[in-house]
Amino acid sequence: MPSLQDTLNEIVAEMAAQTERGEVASYIPELGKVDPAKFAIAVVKNDGEVAAAGDADEPFSIQSISKVFTLALALGRVGDQLWSRVGREPSGTAFNSIVQLELEHGIPRNPFINAGAIVVSDVLLSGHQPREAIGEVLSFMRTVADDDSVIIDRDVANSERATGFRNFALANYLKGFGNLNHAPEMTLGVYFHHCAVAMSCLQLANAGRFLANAGRIEETGHTIVSSERARRINALMLTCGHYDGSGEFAFRVGIPGKSGVGGGILAIVPGVASIAVWSPGLNARGNSMLGSISLERLTKRMNWSIFASR
Ligand code: GLN
């Protein structure tokens, strides 16, 4: 059987040969500048093996992948009370859709669609100034990645603030339903900044270790969340992590994953490995096109699936 490193090298070569790469997100102008030819993949296994290929050291905008980490922080802050303000059902709608908010009286379907993540940001803001809440998210990312060089890309955050009209609409609508405790622009300040965290695939795969390992990072000795909470976050990633493409991702890739419009995906093989991929071009549902294809190939070749018979 080829080694993990050989498999990643093969996937990088195969992806370089793909002519259709999807469309880079341009609704956030700063993201539109990214080279669509970039590709990276990194795997950090629970047994300590690390393998990476392509542009795995190059930071990119993690965007909605940050919502996995803000969810973990918010659950740490308010526990299960969070679920009175956000649901746990797949939405079947686009990440920035507003339609269900009216039907469901201002309770977003799940914490990974934009409306749900804005409520999560609102929770992180309570008792803090926006700058402190943003600092808390950044320091959490540095802790889980075990890397103090992780930064927030201010240009991306400002670009999103300048053009985030749909997110302002969502925040105002949430406020109208009484499901936002702070001024929409304050809550969105936190949201735009956590979406603008920049990380490489290697950093991101490291950041996902606790989800693959029952809430714990062996290398640093930190317990980040309880094993039950890690399981539940993985469940939400599987059912909601790719928006209206979540069913397709579960069908093709077979493990929990969270995508971002920067073209990254964090995927977790519980008990085995944390994986990060990056290819900036997106499919019609706003998920990385080659990122999804490469994860499908990797999990197939490694026989990694939460649905496999042991
Ligand atoms: N910051 C992005 C937005 O609000 C996040 C969306 C995403 O990554 N799917 O539109």
From TrEMBL:
EC number(s) given by UniProt: 3.5.1.2
One Pfam entry name: Glutaminase
Annotated keywords: Acetylation, Hydrolase
GO MF, any single term: glutaminase activity
Catalysed conversion reaction: L-glutamine + H2O = L-glutamate + NH4(+)
Acetylation recorded as keyword: yes
Any one biological process term the GO annotation gives: glutamate biosynthetic process
Domain of life: Bacteria
Residues bound to substrate: 64, 114, 160, 167, 191, 243, 261
Chain coiled-coil ranges: none
Family membership: Belongs to the glutaminase family.
Subunit structure, as described in the record: Homotetramer.
Name assigned to this protein: Glutaminase
Species: Aminobacter aminovorans
Taxonomic placement: Bacteria, Pseudomonadati, Pseudomonadota, Alphaproteobacteria, Hyphomicrobiales
Gene name linked to the record: glsA
